[in-house]
Design a protein that fits this description.
The structure is a single chain. The chain is an all-alpha fold. The protein has 12 helices and no strands. The chain has one domain. The termini are far apart.
């Protein structure tokens, strides 16, 4: 691996380290949103277009650098921009950030890894690529897998870029709508003086709904395997 190939990975690593060393991770939380809600709402109302562009760029960078706090940012987006605009902003920003990370991981690490890997990786790659879109939709729909992991695994398994982009864009829509809608309703939570924790938002009902969608996305794979066994 040459330095020219690896320098984007170095940039991402330095950016992630700077994020934690600066203490910025302490400010990406639902609690901080409640503490600074008036200031944030006032600034967004005064600089609407700048706020939209700035938030989209912030979210894109957060996903590309794999910093934690994506759920808190989704809630904040719903709170600040509403149930109509917020999902659009998050879906496009998350897809853009994930695509940047995918391209870097694929070119810097994925291609050399597959070239040097043994038959086990090639068999896994062939199995994944045979139903790449369905697998990717399942991984995106179930919020039990860390987002950055789902960004990286397809890069190591040789998933085509267009399948990755489509699977990411479509797969994150349901969860994005759910979390930005919850975020849009946080005002009443703050008004009652209640605390908001991101961990408490992944209720069994929400998880069950997303798992149900993931099962639907997996049906083509299950049907193909059933058909292969029958034949």
């Amino acid at each position: 691996m040459t330095a020219r190939r690896l320098w984007p990975v170095g940039v991402l690593a330095i950016g992630l380290a700077a994020f934690f060393l600066s203490g910025a991770h302490h400010y990406i939380s639902c609690e901080q949103l409640g503490l600074h809600r008036e200031t944030l709402v006032g600034w967004v109302e005064a600089h609407r277009l700048l706020a939209i562009v700035g938030f989209v760029l912030l979210y894109t960078a957060a996903i590309a650098f794999s910093v934690p706090g994506g759920l808190a940012l989704s809630l904040a987006c719903g709170f600040l921009f509403g149930v109509v605009l917020a999902p659009i902003m998050i879906v496009f920003a998350a897809t853009a950030g994930a695509t940047i990370l995918f391209i870097i991981a694929k070119t810097a690490l994925g291609d050399p890894l597959r070239a040097k890997a043994g038959p086990w990786l090639k068999r896994m790659e062939a199995g994944f690529q045979g139903n790449a879109l369905s697998y990717l939709l399942v991984l995106r729909l179930i919020p039990l897998f860390p987002f950055f992991v789902v960004n990286l695994v397809p890069a190591f398994l040789g998933v085509p870029l267009w399948i990755y982009v489509v699977g990411t864009f479509v797969g994150i829509i349901p969860g994005t709508i759910v979390f930005t809608t919850v975020g849009a309703g946080l005002g009443s939570v703050f008004d009652r003086g209640q605390t908001c924790t991101t961990s408490g938002l992944l209720t069994p009902e929400i998880i069950a709904g997303l798992v149900g969608l993931a099962i639907l996305a997996a049906l083509p794979v299950l049907y193909k395997r059933f058909k292969d066994r029958r034949s």
